[in-house]
Amino acid sequence: MAEKNEYGDPKYYSNRELSWVLFDHRVLNEARDKSIPLFDRLKFLSITASNLDEFFMIRVASLQDMVNAKYDKPDIAGLKPAEQLQLLDKAIHQLVELQYSTYNRSLVPQLRQNGLQVIRQHEELTEEEADFVDRYFEENVYPVLTPMALDSSRPFPLIRNKTLNIAALVQKKGGKGEMDFATVQVPGVLSRIVQLPSHDKSRKLILLEEIIERNMHKLFLNYDIVCAHPYRIMRNADLTIEEDEAADLLKEIERVLKKRQWGEAIRLEVEAGMDKRLLKILREELHIDESYIYKIDGPLDLTVLMKMYGLEGFDHLKSPGYTPQPVPQLPAGCDLFDEIRKGDILLHHPYQTFEPVVDFIRQAARDPEVLAIKQTLYRVSGNSPIIKALALAAENGKQVTVLVELKARFDEENNIVWAKMLEKAGCHVIYGLVGLKTHCKITLVVRREEDGIRRYVHLGTGNYNDATAKLYTDIGLLTCSEAIGEDATAVFNMLSGYSEPLVWNRLSLAPLWLKDKFLYLIDRERRYALEGRPARIIAKMNSLCDKDIIEALYKAGSVGVKIDLIVRGICCLKVGIRGVSENITVRSIVGNFLEHSRIFYFENDERYEIYCGSADWMPRNLERRVEILFPIDNPDLKEKLVHILDCLLEDNEKAAVLQPDGSYEHPDRRGKAPFRAQAEFCREAVEYAGKLTSDAGPATRTFTPETHR
Amino acid sequence: MGSRIFAAIDVGSFELTMKIFEFTGKGNMKEVDCIQKRLDLGTDTYFNGKISNEKMDELCRALSEFSEKMHAYKADSCKAYGTSAIRETENTTIVQDQIAQRTGIRVDVLSNSEQRFLGYKAIASRGENFSRIIEEKTAIVDIGGGSIQLSLFDNDTLVSTQNLRLGVLRLQEYINRFSARSSQVEMLIDEMAMAQLSIYKKLYLKDREIQNLIVMDDYISPLMVRRHGVKATLETADYTAVRHLIRNGSTTQAALAMGIPEEKVPLVFISALLVERIAELMGARHIWAPGAALCDGIAYEYAEKAGLLQGEHDFEKDIVACATSISKRYMGSKKRSETLENITTTIFDSMKKIHGLGRRERLYLRLASILHDCGKYISMVNIGENSYQIIMATEIIGLSHLEREIVANVARFNYSRFVYYGQQSGSSGLDQDSFLIVAKLTAILRLATGLDRSHKQKLTGLKASLKDNRLVLTVDTQEDITLEKGFFAMKEAFFKEVFSVEPVLKQHKNL
What we know:
The complex is a heterodimer of chains A (709) and B (511). Chain A has 709 residues and is an alpha/beta fold. Chain A is built from 18 helices and 27 strands. Helices cover 37% and strands 21% of the residues of chain A. In chain A, strands 14, 18, 19, 20, 21, 23, 24, 25, 26 and 27 form a ten-stranded mixed sheet that branches. In chain A, helix 15 (547-558) links the parallel strand 19 (536-541) and strand 20 (562-567). The longest helix of chain A is centred in the first third of the chain and has 33 residues, at 81-113. Chain A starts with 15 loop residues before the first helix and ends in a 14-residue tail after the last helix. Chain B is 52% helix and 17% strand. Chain B has helices at residues 42-48, 53-72, 84-87, 92-103, 112-124, 128-133, 168-177, 182-205, 221-228, 236-247, 251-258, 265-282, 294-305, 315-329, 334-350, 352-355, 359-371, 383-393, 401-415, 432-451, 482-499; strands at residues 4-11, 15-24, 28-38, 77-82, 107-109, 138-143, 148-154, 157-164, 212-217, 233-234, 286-288, 463-467, 470-475, 502-507. Chain B has a six-stranded mixed sheet, sandwiched between helices. In chain B, strand 6 and strand 7 form a beta hairpin. In chain B, helix 5 (112-124) packs across helix 13, helix 7 crosses helix 12 and helix 19 crosses helix 20. Classes of the chains: A alpha/beta (709), B alpha/beta (511). Chain A binds chain B through residues 371-372, 398-399, 428, 446, 448, 450-453, 489-490, 493, 496-503, 512-513, and chain B through 1-3, 5, 15, 22, 24, 30, 32-38, 65, 68-69, 71-74, 222, 225-226, 229-230, 259, 291.
């Protein structure tokens, strides 16, 4: 067994960035899995690309900031920022190579076999097709292009972050060999995929940049085009400081930020085989290091594959869509408040529909007995029915308080628009808290009933977003428990700037007490294990990288607590270390739905406790965000959650298990029937919905008149 | 709708608090919401005499938010009280008016004794724990920003209460002024506090052994409740532990460890030290911090008045007991007090139709009867004026300043020449209504003292009946009541003047 203070040794921890790259690899594995429908594989490949973009803008940018600020405090695994960048450089290049080999060697040929040809280069077009694209260019593309040529009188233009561009070397017609640089942005307003006319069943498509490249000469009439190639840059343009970092770092970066050249380029992607002279100009003008240049063998920016996934006519190459099932306790048109009063209701999305949550707010908005509605909103969908319901409630004279988190990454602008709308409708809108991101998902409805005030609360692990609720796995709880209602009131009072209540009943809040609570729960298992009593922890989350928590897990595991972790993304904990983590397993599930729920099980000497929440075991969640952990008390619902965890631990198709060497492997399936948790949950939800509705008794031949309430 | 919603607002010297209560049938009182905002009005008032404009703006902004929330709950009524920061500011009425104009909330000012009384009701609102604890010898220490209040209980009744200017904010401000080093803070507070506390011990505590100490404050109690729960019995050591935690680390560390804002740390420190010293002084073994706040008391009072709640504890008894112990301190005769109380209330009760006064005024009369001659302790000649001065200088818990003045005046005019409304000299703050109360109660008390002139309690079996403008008082005694009859005749003029009723004394010799 390791010495008491030894668990903090960096050798017991993995670097979070490298662990993230492994996660993207796992998603990429889905794109490489031949048992998965072809178009789904396109989708997964697209996801790896958009993931990587985000990773660059946030994490790589942040590491570069640290290097620039000469901040060299090592991370949890003992690596300094510069070392991390070096390792990442290698890892990301490998990842990108694998992305494109998957695309070129596996997906493109298979698409062709299935009747969809992607024309890689415009030179491959037939004459008829070439005519078509040239006409398409003149009619649709040309009018929206802004070509820019660079010579001594004009400075290098500003190339916008994440845009796709075409660079060219041009030479004055009849000139004496001197070459100029020219560039044009591939317009984002046009579809990047252009379908070509076809005479038979097979379909062909070409990417917009190829069409532009082919017609470059029409943009620079007095020049000859020497060469033209697409390129794309990513900038360190994220002026808000990453909340993930330590406070001392934030101060340091803040100082440097002011000096930092705005929008320094941190990644340049170019078409493999780009003319060396052209590449040299780009490299010099963008001041970018060789290691940040990615020479791409295929189309740049693979997020375009999501568009390809959306092409009609290929449904047979996609997994059949799943319709979220109704929740049997909440039949359509029921009075939600009546139903919640009968007992707590657990919602499992996306297997079960998100509709009750929307209805909860809709009904509250119309209900004359409702006094107030309060809600936190982190990311909502474009045309959110929740926002509409809240606005309606305010118009109906309810007190509506909404905390809108403006700091939600990439969503800022979107959020401001509808926050203003809510304000107009008369809602009291709180635009986040200073220094903290509000990440908890909670709704409180205060209702004045016959026997007094009753509070209805919805708590969730996922955002109030009806669109993502069809794709993300999340848990929700509808309850009118007095204790939770009191706490919920206190949560909103605190979010409105008032002091903390004297006592919390059931909820634990970050950044106040949540971390302590987790540490306490983990340590309690450790103590039970020492006493020789049953001790076990199952925890499911998106990421695990909080050092204190990992240390506590090592301590608990080393004395015999059986710990099973289901961590979809980053995991800084290492398994299989002798005397430290032999009792700990980590598995990651990557499937059609994005695993998003956070569920925590603690054996507690056979009186097990189970919690759900909005927080991962990450420092940012536990220390710099407002998060809520809520217990599930109803025995039936607890069992449901245990069943969910059991299924996830049993999954041998979509799970990957962390190995002592840090890699992830599929679990050993020998002698076991293939089992896929997500598929099982879909099946169960359908069955459950059907069963309970048929339990409702035989259909009667009478009508039930609607009465006024 | 079966329930009633009430909003209680406490404009404290350090924090603003609003609690929303719900009263449902069967005398249920439930707190449904509580919001609290840090706003240090005390420092402005205690040391500059006035609340600054910035603080006024902040105060009004917060109260407007409170008002919104109250409306969201569709509160049936609301009561807002200001304590010492509002009371002691030089321009109280202007402040009150501004708040009312800007927020629609009328903030009434509580006198210290009313405030403490509400605090004490707040503790009582915590129910059975309270009644159980005060069966033993118990003291309540109510630690405020400007001062602290020490109250003693005997056999579940309040017996004495004393205000000491040892409020947490006040002490903190002194420390700031002395620019004391942090190592000296403890000693300085100790010295300032013990100087007053030892006098208190000599005067009130004497050899009394106190078993339980109930602590009420907004500084350390919330922390103790959070750590130990509402019902836990604590010891001095628990408070020492908190103080050591603060002393041995930086303010930031302590704030983090205790989960409180940094600016509150020094106040928690002072509060902990005060509780320790007081507990030691009294020899209290058990400490109870129920986390009760003024708002609870405000709601309790509202509920009592509105008949929503039947309190277990008899608060009137406490007020009377308090007066009795004051009387005892000034060598008043218990027997005589009882006789007078008996006579005055008999007369009062028989004349309800005439005087139109209520239960509260009856209480004034009882108090005046008990305290009517406490001035003789100073001089036998000028009893009325001296009694007035003593009563005005002594705190009677549960009475507002105005009420105390009524009682003091009744005691005064019982001996001194009656001064009519409009003839009063400058300092008296009695309005017309209060003046009438004083006149009526004085008339009754004068008649009663006349009936017991010999101080021999001859008139035990007194009966009163009102018939056609005549109040017939029948005494059932064998004794010679010539003296009483004589004095009775002398006092009846004033009685007649006030009530237009002629008092008649009859002796019924039951041979």
